[in-house]
Amino acid sequence: MRIQDMNWQMVEAALRRDDRCVLPLGCTEQHATLSLATDTLLAGRVAREAAEGLGIPVFPALPYGITPTFTAYPGTLSVSVSTYLALLDDLLSGLQAQGFRRILVVNGHGGNAPGQGWMGEWLARHPDARVQWHNWWNAPRTWAAVQATDELASHASWMESFPWTRLEGVSAPEERKPMVDLNALRQLPPAGVRALLGDGNFGGLHRRPDREMLRIWQEAVAETRALLETGWA
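^ thats the sequence. predicted structure below, dont judge the formating
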């Protein structure tokens, strides 16, 4: 159940039946030829499809995250780690105060990792709550499906190129781009990152056939749904 399709009375009724909810996290950053909102679109969609039919509220995906590395690419917006953790604290504490006790965080952006490390601090202050932090794209079953398709998969490559992250009228290069030197990349300021990366793809093809992508997507949805249903301590 998407929160945007509910009013407050409907959420109150849902809470009387169930204490679970889903909070997707994304960001707004360059993804080569793909949408700047790729991570937000994917996190929100996998969350919605995984929760379909379960009667569990799915909140709108948070569209901003921690991505200072890409700020030399126009359209990328980054928030500081301190701002991000404060926002997560407010959101999770608000959910807990309203009665949600089992919260699945579906994260779509690797740069948001500080939130995962901080989660233990929040749980120590809210011992009655349970939170699962789920990096949907590299969870075991999904990542195995990615690797079985093509081992050279990375940021802004084919593994993020779904029909709903591509842009109409934008073509993608056909080259299989060599993997960037990640150690060198991590040492550079934003302008240097852009100079090294070019279009933004870390390495690999820009696209693969939709039949392959949909197989991976189905695995990701099933893996996320399993966490919602049986992943609670």
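The chain has eight helices and three strands.
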